[in-house]
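From: lab user (bench 3)
To: helpdesk
Subject: output format question, protein + zinc ion

Hello, I'm new to running complex predictions and I'm not sure whether the block I got back is the full result or only part of it. Here's what I submitted:
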Amino acid sequence: MTLTITSPLKKRLPTVSAWFTHPAESEYRTWFVCANCAFEMRAHNTGPPVAYRDDRVRKQLEQRDRLVLEKSIFKRPADT
Ligand SMILES: [Zn+2]
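Helpdesk reply: Thanks, we reran it on our side. This is the complete output you should expect:
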């Protein structure tokens, strides 16, 4: 996968890498994380991302997504 995204804070080098998480059965996220600064961006995917690979999964980010997911499930009104 080739990435040409450039960090908005340090524009000289493309230092942003894409990572994936799979926090639940049908949940996928794509993360763009800069190696040089705190820039990070998360995209929600409706299915497995085209470039999804298990070795591109970041467990640390996946843990964060899982926590967000659990909170949103907790807040969801119960079905009647
Ligand atoms: Zn950056």
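A quick orientation on your result: The pocket of zinc ion is lined by residues 7, 9-10, 15, 34, 36-37, 39 (CB under 6 Å). Let us know if anything else is unclear.
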